[in-house]
Amino acid sequence: MTQLEVLILEEMRDQMIDVVAKRIWFLGFSLIILLIGIISLIIPPHLNLGIDFLSGTGITVKFEKSLSSLDIQSRLDDLGLKNSSVQSIGDDSFFIRTEKLSDFTDSDSSVEISRNDIENSFKTIDPDYLILEVETVGTKVAEGTIQNSLIAVSVSSLFVMLYILYAFRRLEKSFRFAVAAVFTLLHDVILVTGLYALLGHIFGLQVNSVFIVAILTVIGYSVNDTIVIFDRIRENNIKYDSASLSRTINRSINESITRSLGTSITTLLVLLSMLFLGGSTLRDFLIVLTLGVVVGTYSSIFVASQFLVFWDQGFRNKPDDQV
Amino acid sequence: MIKIRTVIIASAILLISILSISFQVINVDFLGFKFNRGDPSTFLGLSLGLDLKGGTHLVYEAEPNEGSSLSADDMEGARRILEKRVNAFGIAEPSVQLVGSGADVPEKILVQLPGLQKININLTIAGQVALEDLNRFIVDELGYQDLSIRELEDFKGSYVISGPKIKGNDGSNDANILLSKLDAIYPLSIILAYVPGESEDTSQDIPSIEQIESAASLTGESNVSVEDLSQGVFKVTFHDYVPDQDGVDFRYLDEADTAVLGAPFEIVGNLFQATISGGVSSWRVSGGVEEAKKLIGETAQLVFKERDCMPVENQNSEEFWPPDELSMEEWINLRCLVPDYYQDKAVALSGKDLVDAFPDVQPGIARPVVSVVFDEDGADEFYDITSRISKNQDLLAIFLDGEPLVAPSVSAGISGGRAFIQGPSFDSETVKTISIQLKSGALPVNLKLVQERNVDATLGSDSLRKSLIAGGIGMILVLSFMILYYRIPGIVASVSLIFYSILLLGVFKLIPVSLTLSGAAAVILSIGVAVDANILISERTKEEIRGGRNLFSAINQGFTRAWPSIRDSNVSTVIICLVLYWFGDRFTTSVIQGFALTLGIGIIVSMFTAFTVSRLIMRAISRTVLGRFLNFYDPVGSINFRRDEGSND
After folding, report:
1. pLDDT above 90 for B601
2. Secondary-structure breakdown of chain B: helix, strand, coil percentages, each rounded to the nearest 5
3. B525 and B383 belong to one structural domain
4. Nearest-CA distance from B117 to chain A in Å?
5. What's residue A1's pLDDT?
6. Are B179 and B266 within one domain?
7. What is the mean pLDDT of residues B216-232?
8. Of B258, B290, B322, which marks where a domain is finished?
9. Do residues B574 and B548 lie in contact, with contact meaning Cβ atoms separated by under 8 Å?
10. Is residue A12 part of a domain?
């Protein structure tokens, strides 16, 4: 490699996008999306909670004949199951959600219809139909799920914070990095949940225990992505000792942006092919994950490190920042 | 430097992984070291979780008995009892575990029954029918698919047919059609044994086959065949006889049914014994899940009471006895029947004194019975009670779960501590259930079913197949992207990713880790993590090349510099996995723990492959002719075949 080429490459590397100077736009953008998410969480029917949270019975059936969800709904109405809903999940399969059936020994079961009654009723429309899955969740379990989910998210955040404090201990004000990582993590969780609530209103997506797993995955991905950028900041901070934090951050973002994009593109390739080609069972999970990867990549670049700059210098732009 | 040691270790690990996934079942028994892994029926022999294999997931919540609180010992005791009961199902890998929600004492019990089928048919066939023959007939000849047939261990001649549905090759979807086919191939047959009469009367001689045949024609059945088994023993087979159905899904062939058929044969000679030697004698269709819930969650408490009836004769008031102006005959019948005339007294004998309980048959009793064996103290007590009862002409009242079962009279004190219990509704399935419940003991706590999940195996296998195909396509896309964008490091990363996939499958099989849908999701994420490690390394290497280093040292620097990011980002994800695994048992679903375990393993394996395999291959390649084209290591470097002048390692 000739000296000239090296110089050109150096030059190219310095053609950096000034993310830091535009941080107010990114934070503003995040706030708007957050607001939309929070609004769709606040306005009824909030999140479309599944039986894991609200108790009840969920039945997945597959028919050999092609039927519409109205056909099935009318069967359930005939049986007298009032609070039931039927959702088509493709492949002549349907997800039925209803109150707890009577063959369940939980004491507050209010319906007098058993699984057998439903099975017999369906047999008359299609003798070859198959019940793929039946799940009944009692009230107490449902209450515990919400509580435990919150605990799991909080404890995970706490431990991640402690680890970042340890890993970045050599850095000045390392607790800021820990707080920034957790802020980003919560940002991602709220954003994804809000977007999911929005999609829930439109496509009838439900929140169940799989959603919790998906959110935890998003946390893992978000932290992973954030730390890679923080690691660059840590390295550049030592390398360019005299540079201001905002400049170091801007340099670090630019250096790791191809990696961030590369990783999210590859992850999205797997997720999207599974979403479009895989079975319907994992669909909701994959939607959350896809949202999570996009949001996680965005937030690691535009939220986590900008949070550090804000903490350091507020809205001011130092002259040193101008590239 | 390429370390030979690393090469050897990496190849050995790859070899072990390939071997472990290329054999469906691994079965090693070497010098007392036993190692069994794999499943003959699954993809690569990997063990599948309940959501993929199909099965039942039940969550029970314990409530303390009145006036006491839950203790950890009680819960462990309850768990052990449930485990004993669950093991009686004979399905592979059931699991019974305590789950808590943060309190000191876990208050929930999670029962997982993988592969528990929707339909179970219990049938008893008289005579010796080999399991293989029955299997061949039902599966090969009748073409019933997805059915498994097994023989109950402690009840010979009883079989359990189970499957997702009872569907024959003629499209029939009804258990009763299967029953009628079984009736045709296993017709009812009776063995008649005659002995010569003591009198001179010739009609009391052993009857001839002609006499038996004419008697057979009197039964009203057509198509009866008679076989002379010599010395007064005949086998009569009723080919077209269909026993009365006792219910839609239930029938039991008892003496009342055969008495009509047997009557003509009693006239022709001195009939010593008539026994059913062939035919489907009992049949019962039940939902597997319903049976499971019944067996698992309900207690079987056996209570003995001494039914102290008013005396037959009362010496103190002979004139007014029997009371209520009853005749002596009526009095004898009623004194132990009308609650006013008797009193049930508690005795110092209960189900706790049992050492064994098993299904059994007793001569002269049509229905199966439950035989019980008492321990030494129980045997003594039992002898005392039965002696007292026989002397006073009282009864021994037996209750199961508070329901009166039978109240037999006793003719003499029973010693030895062995007895049997009969009940008016006993069949082979109920005696089995009661035996298991009695043997496993009473539960120390009350259990309430709070969550239930039944997954059909087709749902899981279908989604697994689709997910695997989709995952494969995703993987190909990722590899294409890596190769097109990162060029040589991309090819290396691809090889490393394939190595990673094989290694991960090997680890899953050897530990073993059950593959679940949430686990599959974790695998997707861990592929992302594995790719990420390679991307970080490739990016760093590229930077070092642009910084003017020669290839070999750029590769070394790339790995060294990428390490802290890979370490810190992955350690934080592993921390989350640990937290989730730790918290996972608070959720009454194994989804979260399965996810955490799979992701954790995936991340550790990905770090290993990135830093051994990728590095090894990168270093090796840099020494070949490919090492001369530096631009092939840079995504934006132009591809021309210009030699790398800086390469002087």
Report:
1. yes
2. 45, 25, 30
3. no
4. 12
5. 45
6. yes
7. 81
8. B290
9. no
10. no
Determine whether the interchain pair A133/B571 forms a contact, defined as Cβ–Cβ distance below 8 Å. Answer: no
Looking at A137, A170, A201, the residue that finishes a domain is A137
Quick check: B449 and A104 CB within 8 A?
A: yes
- Say yes or no to pLDDT of B215 above 90: no
Band (B642; pLDDT cuts 50, 70, 90): very low
Claim to verify: residue B424 and residue B315 sit in the same structural domain = yes
Residues of A in contact with B588 (CB under 8 A): 141, 144
53-112 in chain A: CB under 8 A from chain B: 60, 103-107
A301/A164 same-domain check = yes
Which amino acid is it at B551? Answer: L
Note whether A167 and A100 are same-domain residues.
Answer: no
Considering the entire predicted model, what is its pTM? 0.71
CA atoms within 13 A on the CB side of B77: 12
Nearest-angstrom CA–CA distance, B568 and B575:
10
| Cβ atoms of residues A196 and A207 within 8 Å | yes
How many other C-beta atoms lie within 10 A of the C-beta of residue B502?
17
ipTM for the complex shown: 0.81
Based on the fold, state whether residues A25 and A88 are members of the same structural domain: no
Domain that holds residue B532: 4-26+456-633
Distance of residue B35 Cα from the nearest chain A Cα, in angstroms: 33
A151 contacts chain B (CB < 8 A): yes
As a whole number of angstroms, the distance between CA A188 and CA A37 comes to 11
B105 assigned to some structural domain: no
How far is B79 from chain A, CA to nearest CA, in Å?
19
Burial of B317 (0-12, 13-18, 19+ CB in 10 A): exposed
In a domain, A220, yes or no: yes
If asked whether residues A35 and A116 sit together in one domain, one would say no
- Tens digits of residue pLDDT in B454-479: 887 766 677 777 877 888 888 889 88
In-domain check, residue B112: no
Give the CATH number for residue B593. 1.20.1640.10
Q: Which tokens belong to B501?
A: 């996939």
DSSP run (H or E) holding A25: helix A23-42
A261 Cβ under 8 Å from any chain B Cβ: no
pLDDT of residue A71: 84
B114 phi, psi to nearest 5 deg: -65, 140
Q: pLDDT value at position B20?
A: 84
Find tokens 């472990």 and name the residue: B20
B136 min Cα distance to partner chain A (Å): 25
A175/A151 same-domain check = yes
Highest mean pLDDT: which of A78-92, B381-395, B400-414? B381-395
Is the pLDDT reported for residue A12 higher than 70? no
| Same structural domain, A126 and A170 | no
**Structural domain containing residue A196:** 18-49+141-321
**8 A C-beta contact, residue B616 and residue B631:** no
Contact criterion met (CB < 8 Å) for B452 and A131: no
Nearest-CB residue to A209 (from B454, B591, B599): B591
Which amino acid appears at position B96 of this protein?
Answer: V
- For residues B509 and B443, membership in a common domain is answered with no
